Prior knowledge:
There is one protein chain. This protein has about 475 residues and is of the alpha/beta class. About 45% of the residues lie in helices and about 15% in strands. The protein has 19 helices and 12 strands. The protein has helices at about 5, 10-25, 30-40, 45-60, 60-65, 80-95, 100-115, 115-135, 145-150, 155-165, 170-175, 195-205, 230-235, 270-275, 290-305, 350-355, 355-375, 395-405, 440-445; strands at about 185-190, 210, 220-225, 235-240, 260, 285-290, 310-315, 330-335, 380-390, 410, 440, 450-455. The strands form 2 sheets. Strands 5, 6, 7, 8, 9, 10, 11 and 12 form an 8-stranded mixed β-sheet that branches. Helix 17 (about 355-375) packs parallel to helix 18. It is globular. It starts with a helix and ends in a 6-residue tail after the last strand.
Amino acid sequence: MAKNKIIHSVRYLANEILEAIESEGAYSNILLNKMIDQHKLSEKDAGLLTELVYGVTQRKLTLDYGLTPYVRSPKKLESWVRNLLRLSAYQMVYLDKIPDHAILYDAVEIAKFKGHTGISKLVNGILRNVQRNGLKDWKEITDPIERMSIGSSVPVWIIKKLINQLGNEKAESLAHSLQIAPYLSIRIQDRTVSIDEVRQRLLEDHIKAEASPISPYGLRVHSGRVVKSELFKNGIITIQDESSQLVALFGSLKPTDKVLDACAAPGGKTVHIASFLDKAVEGEVHALDIHEHKIKLIEENTKRLHVTDEVITHLLDAKKSSERFDPKSFDVIFVDAPCSGMGLMRRKPEIKYSLKDTDIHELQKQQQEILNAVEPLLKTDGRLIYSTCTIVQEENQETVQTFLKEHPNMKVIPADSKSAFSPEIELPSTVITPEGYVEIYPDDFGTDGFFICAMEKTTRGEE
């Protein structure tokens, strides 16, 4: 195959992305978008590239285990060769529309191009064995934790943590659900347009979507390119996960509210919050982030979704927010805290391999520091909404409980209470914990995992 043809082929690009994820800690979603734009891929090729990158990353441990009978010393292989074997084996075992001869031919050509004839022969020999005998079956593993780990491709320490927190059955359901491709979800930014109208107008652009089971402003897309639709271009809709769409609703926002979004980037929640406010009656949201390029992302979002008047951005660490704002400045404060992102393991599967247990304890400390820093800025009777995209108790329940212990003037607004948010919004009871928090796992509705706690500031403990 000619050099130019190889470096523009979908399988070569997939291997390059997998290599960057493993060796450089790159994010799959960012690299995929960059490659699709850079190589001007057709819709069909972009779909295949996405399938290959997500499929291999989601099943990395399963694939490595399955290849063990055919690879004598996997650690001695160069990283790109391991990824090429995973990529090729994934197509042969999990995809049924690509003939083996095409997979083998491309794998050998890529091995020749990136390595030499010896490596191409090694790759060909291993893949011929996979073709003849299949991958080693993880279901034959006798240790139940290792079996769950290899079968779901989730590291053992995470499996143990999930079992301790949720029990065997739920942990297994959650872990295996991470191998199912995520939905593309959209949220209606212009709330004067109904879900039925949005769905009909999307159909006119050949995009099929259905209403979300948990978000009153959300839809799931089944086919078509939303970003090419007139509704997206005109800022009527935006892309946002369904569980994340619930956060702004817990603010029970009024048009006149002064709001702080303490950890705002990239701005998906900020623009949703802003859609409830009205600058004409002095409603506004102050959006903070510590990175200048992320502030630009927020500002781009506000322009596209027509809420620039309501959003004021600040390059500022939330832990230093009292240096910029007076005590009791805000009616509502949102802390969508920095977290391990374990609720995003389906959408960003590389997270599960790079994360360490010690990271969680460091993040818990940061979460508490941010909550402590913003609490003085909240008015009496004001709301503080704490949320994360993780599913572990240390970053959720434990962080909230520590905060409540240190701040007796704060109390939880139970998610199933009448005052939680508008009465027309009703959440499934299964996602509400006995303490009144919202806790959504990736296997519940096929969304990201998410945690939300709404609190209110009382006069209790004040002099």
